[in-house]
Structures
1.
Amino acid sequence: MSKLSRAEVLAELSSRANVDPIEAERVLQSLADLAEEESAKGFLIPNLGELSIQPGPEFEYRNPATGTTMMVPGPPSLAFTPDSGFEKNAIEKRDSDQKLETPDKSARVLPTLNLTPSSADMTSAGLDSTIKSRNKLGGQPDWIQGEPNRMACCGSDMTFYGQFDSSVGGEFNVADSGMI
């Protein structure tokens, strides 16, 4: 949805307030004039928010003639702080208008890449080189108990990235010969 033009805003305001479009424009202009005059003190627009003028950040200024430096105030800026009820309702309205899709909670299955160390590497590491290694990246895990090949946490399926077989012995052997 594109934003409303000035004419569309006036027509919509006129229709909702049941007033003449010229009267709606006059009220909006009066509101803008009042906001300009009062924003230095803070100007509350009921049910919408507050306009205020905020001081700019200080910055260092160097006098080109003398070379001395001093801190000077930065230019002020106009700030708008939305009313909490207005902000909440506007966000909820946007979300319902956009009918935000819920993210897909099913996990991706990555292609499998088996990682098999050479028998010389296994022997030099003090491991039995005759045991088939189940080291791999991607694919499906080999150790899941319960529902086959389903890992879940916090209501979402998890993507499996890889496993290292600890049942071949060595320094990282898990007591139940599982996967790490």
2.
Amino acid sequence: MRKNSKIIKANLILLGMVLFIFCFSSVYAASEVLKFKNSEQEQRYKKLTHKIRCITCANQSVADSDATIAGSLRSIVYQQIRQGKTDEQIMQFLMARYGDYVSYEPPFKLSTLFLYLGPLLFILFGLLVLFKTIKRRSLESADLELSQEEKARLSLLLSPKPESPKPESFKQEQ
């Protein structure tokens, strides 16, 4: 019986070690190993991959994304940097191929007009609503003016009344 418990214990330890290795080895497998001619190219690569938006991810750069398309975009950027293309040429190539959405800083043109003017339109709309609301409230308060007859009746209701004589029974109880 002791032999069985020792075997079970050894198997459990072995299983734990195998699970540990499988769990943490995937962390190292995901990193890309890229070789650049110099550190300037590497800096350009890092800068560009942070400026390029992942097409399938929700507002995430290709540098931070694990999506397959992000890996493809990183590969394209790497190849074009190695070919000696400028940052502008690389961005133009990607925007021509994938659209303006791929850039966090899309160019100002007809298709991106609402993107740039949208916030201004929302502010102007908010100011218009605010102006109309203030104007409507000032008109409503002007309609609340009392007529002369209503003012006289109000002053009569609010004026102090002369004291009425107190009954005798009330005076004696005090």
3.
Amino acid sequence: MELPKEKRHMSKENRSTLLTAAALAVPSTIMTRGDTTRNILAVPVRKPGRGEFVQCHAEWRSPPIACIKERNPVEEVFAVDPKIVNHVKDEVTFHIMVPMISTAGAVFIWPIRVSERANDTWSRSAMDAADDARGQWRRIYAADRCYETVKPVSDSLTDPAWPASLSWDEMFDLAFREHYIDSVDHPVLRRLRGDF
């Protein structure tokens, strides 16, 4: 049921006092979160969003990892066990996994493709963008045939709060626990073979 128009908002005439920011200020005792700890339950594997400012972890980064990307309906990245890579060479690409954090505190892993082609500007510029965002805030976006970065105009962004309870190995495990191919009979590989 919709409220009558006159009750949807209060006009100046119906308010007894002026609504000010000071009147809505929250006491710092309420804003303090206390001893709560974030419990990260999943880590997405994705590219940085076009409009978000991110930082790469200053130290963490993976060696090249064999991966298979599947669109079903959104893109999912699966890590492939080195023991079976020779059996699925035509399906895998190699990626360096770069841990990232957004200004909102969202952690994720950016899979950056390793390419041997000299003219692969996407892979090269992605790694350059990740290096540029190492220890400093950057907005990373896809431009014309390459990634570019934007430095924030304000210096008010604080250092990221990486979850203290999460190591790089734990972050990687959360990202790929359900996206790990360790057998040639894995459902993703079966779909790629047409074995329904």
4.
Amino acid sequence: MKKKDKTTNNEPVTEQELPETEAPESAETGEAREATVEEWQAALELAVKQRDELKDSLLRAQADFQNFKRRNQTARSDGYEDGVREAIAAMLPAIDNLERAIEAAEKQEGEAGAAAPALAEGVKMTLNTLFESLKRFGFEEVPALGEEFDPEKHNAVMRETSDDPGKVLEVFQKGYRVKDKIIRYAMVKVSVEG
């Protein structure tokens, strides 16, 4: 209670009134002692060690974040490209039908008079416009007719004996790829050794 009274009366607290634990004292003399060089060095080494640990932790966190950003960017671009491939694959039946319409119009060219060539020309223009639009996304036809059979690009559904084995003799359905990925294999007839 005395301490409270002295501090409330705005009187300074003297060193004698402080508890003994606040000022380190030497066991022999009873006086406050200064830290030794060894104690300062130990404290410095501890601080340096803590700094190095924190710096290492920070560098690891930064590297983890950079890896996360890179993985996220890769996942986003892969997702976009997968979406493009799926959308183009969904259009392939329409492309096939346009190609069949051109073939049918060319077969009827002599029979129907002047209407068939105009119709075939219009469908060709539509198909070419569609191909040009899709090429911006890396869309292209997989070469097949006369090519060496490649199971990575072609789906052999028939075979025929020939003197030149391993060649694609006929294409039943065109194959397509977007950039480096096949979205539909070419359905082909392959020559085999007879």
